[in-house]
Amino acid sequence: MKSAFSRLLAPCLRPARAALLACCAATAAAAQPLQVEHAQGSLTLQGPPAKVIVLDMAALDTLDALGVPVAGAPTTPLPGRLKQYNGDGYLRAGTLFEPNYEVIHAAKPDLVIVGGRSAAKYAEVARIAPTIDLTADTADLLGSLRRNTETLGRLFGKQDLAQARLKALDESIETLRKKAQGAGTGLIVLTTGGKMSAYGPGSRFGVLHDAFGIAPADAKLNTSNHGQAISNEFILKTNPDWLFVIDRDAAIGREGASAQRLLDNELVRKTRAWQNGRVVYLDAMNWYLLGSAGLTAMQQNVEQLIRAFDDKS
Question: What's phi and psi for 218, nearest 5 deg?
């Protein structure tokens, strides 16, 4: 039989007992193995990784959006919001094309993330530490972004935030699609080293047409990674209503003729896009370096296009 003192004390103990049980449940959940499917296989982790090195800019962008700390990142040009990862306090884990294996080995990370340009080094990195490849599929860029965001959200206990950010992105894309209806045709042009290439549906930048609903000025462009080499005559012949420009040299910090200077010529000035002030210089770092595959990069890209349509509506 319980004493009077025990009966009196019981209500005070219930909150502490509940908190202890919740803590134990959370600890047990955290200790559960995590199965991760990725572009080059699958990986089982024994719990949420605490020390992470990222060799993919899109993944770094998404982790930053989710508030997940990382230990190291590649030394490469980064957009302003990510420049901190090339500063003090972060491991310099090599470049996007050549990881620093010695630094990675010495760091003993719980997880290394490769993708895109660094994906070719997956096998070498995986011999050193648990590694996943989050390369985005350009044929289904939005689907890849969603899967990768959900994977990272699950790995780091950020599921709710991941879903909230994805929901906001979906709403923004729907707004953009509505504005793109009836807005005319668009042509994506990348400039570099004084040369130009164009991209259409199904290409690395084809999300502009495939997901955002902007009608292509030419639906039969080469879908190779380097696009289709074009001239000013091609732009005039295609005569798009909108000209969307990615300045690769600006993205990688290379000096040379800017996209604005390259396109400011007699032929391009005759196009509908130029005459109606509908030449849009896209955020080159987001589009070219991050491939629009990072969560913040994609959100910013969509918002830039919404503003462009609003300004010229």
Answer: -140, 110
Asked if 246 contacts 283 with a C-beta cutoff of 8 angstroms, the reply is no
In angstroms, what CA-CA distances link 257 with 4, 27, 156, 229, 234? 87, 57, 43, 17, 20
CA distances, 161 to each of 63, 65, 67, 175 (Å): 11, 9, 9, 21
The model carries a pTM of 0.87
| The two structure tokens encoding residue 253 | 């910090």
Q: Each residue's pLDDT tens digit in the chain (313 positions)?
A: 455 545 544 554 455 555 444 444 444 445 689 999 999 999 999 999 999 999 999 999 999 999 999 999 999 889 999 999 999 999 999 999 999 999 999 999 999 999 999 999 999 999 999 999 999 999 899 999 999 999 999 999 999 999 999 999 999 999 999 999 989 999 999 999 999 999 999 999 999 999 999 999 999 998 888 899 999 999 999 999 999 999 999 998 886 668 999 999 999 999 999 999 999 999 999 999 999 999 999 999 999 999 999 986 6
Asked if 60 and 54 count as a contact pair (C-beta separation under 8 A), the reply is yes
Q: What is the CA radius of gyration of the chain?
A: 24
Please tell me what DSSP assigns to residue 186.
Answer: E
For 101, residues 6+ apart whose C-beta sits below 8 A from its C-beta are 94, 124, 125, 128
Among 147, 232, 126, 143, CA closest to 189: 232
CATH value of 30-164 in 3.20.20.70, 3.30.980.10, 2.60.40.420, 3.40.50.1980: 3.40.50.1980
Residue 260 contacts residue 226 (beta carbons within 8 Å): no
CATH of 182-282, one of 3.10.110.10, 3.90.280.10, 2.60.40.10, 3.40.50.1980: 3.40.50.1980
